[in-house]
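F.,

This is the one I mentioned.
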């Protein structure tokens, strides 16, 4: 039996649906999905099996105009993920069309796309009429020589199976890169931290979307089969701590409960989750925080 294996990078603007597509392809939640832009910080790899092929997805941070050190590190991680992949999939939102950000990405693809298979996935196709889709497809294929174009809805699953089958056939022949039952190469500690950060992001809305990070400080496997997980939520100001805690601790309790329930479902066993909120004024400038997020601190220069 001939097996195939390789890396597929999903790139696009923030909120294009890359995390949703990754989670649907893999069949499990490995990348956090929120309605906020720029929620994927690290290059999360999800592993999907399609026939005799193992597809390793690199879910890159959204490509946008960087303003801060963290932004620059995220953008560098995104292009790094694309440059290292066997196949690149550019995701575009159908209803937004060719934005200034998409034009910039197309320019970048011209640099890294030489000799590499690049596919186009137009997402959220249920939001526009067929003539609009056709015109958008023609415009994008005139701007870049895509190997294939797919019309999909990552959220509803339309066209996702066709894309996965095509990707499997494009990967190089070779042995599988991960054990069959492994769906992500992120340490469980980081996946757990991402789940808690997602709940915080959803709960806090506009109040402090990117001024916090979550780290799993301790993970203890207990004799009764449960796990005790201790996490720290780092915020950059005293005022932010109060927002995260909420009135009489209501916010942090609700976040902890939601994160614990999702972790229990993911792990298939009981979890005891303990959250602490700490102020670290300069966490956005600390190399250690970037390492925890799977980013390169130097890329933020």
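My design for it:
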């Amino acid at each position: 039996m001939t097996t195939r294996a390789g890396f597929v990078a999903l790139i696009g603007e923030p909120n294009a649906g890359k995390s949703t597509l990754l989670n649907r392809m893999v069949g499990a939640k490995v990348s956090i999905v929120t309605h906020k832009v720029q929620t994927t910080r690290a290059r999360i790899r999800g592993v999907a099996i399609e026939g005799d092929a193992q597809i390793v997805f690199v879910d890159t941070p959204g490509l946008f105009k960087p303003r801060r050190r963290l932004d620059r590190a995220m953008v560098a991680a995104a292009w790094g993920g694309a440059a290292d992949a066997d196949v690149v999939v550019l995701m575009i939102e159908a209803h937004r069309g060719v934005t200034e950000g998409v034009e910039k990405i197309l320019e970048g693809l011209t640099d890294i796309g030489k000799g590499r298979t690049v596919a186009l996935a137009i997402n959220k196709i249920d939001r526009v009429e067929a003539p609009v889709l056709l015109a958008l497809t023609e415009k994008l294929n005139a701007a870049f020589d895509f190997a294939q174009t797919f019309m999909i809805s990552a959220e509803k699953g339309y066209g996702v199976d066709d894309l996965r089958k095509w990707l499997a056939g494009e990967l190089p022949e070779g042995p599988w890169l991960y054990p069959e039952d492994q769906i992500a190469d992120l340490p469980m500690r980081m996946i757990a931290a991402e789940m808690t950060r997602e709940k915080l992001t959803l709960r806090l809305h506009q109040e402090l979307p990117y001024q916090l990070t979550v780290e799993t400080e301790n993970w203890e496997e207990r004799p009764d089969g449960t796990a005790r997980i201790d996490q720290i939520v780092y915020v950059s100001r005293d005022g932010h701590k109060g927002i995260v805690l909420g009135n009489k601790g209501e916010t942090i309790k609700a976040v902890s409960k939601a994160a614990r329930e999702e972790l229990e479902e993911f792990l298939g066993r009981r979890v005891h989750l303990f959250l602490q909120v700490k102020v670290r004024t300069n966490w956005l400038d600390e190399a250690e925080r970037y390492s925890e997020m799977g980013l390169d601190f130097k890329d933020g220069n």
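The beta strands are 4-12, 44-50, 53-59, 87-93, 117-123, 148-151, 212-221, 227-235, 271-279.

Talk soon.
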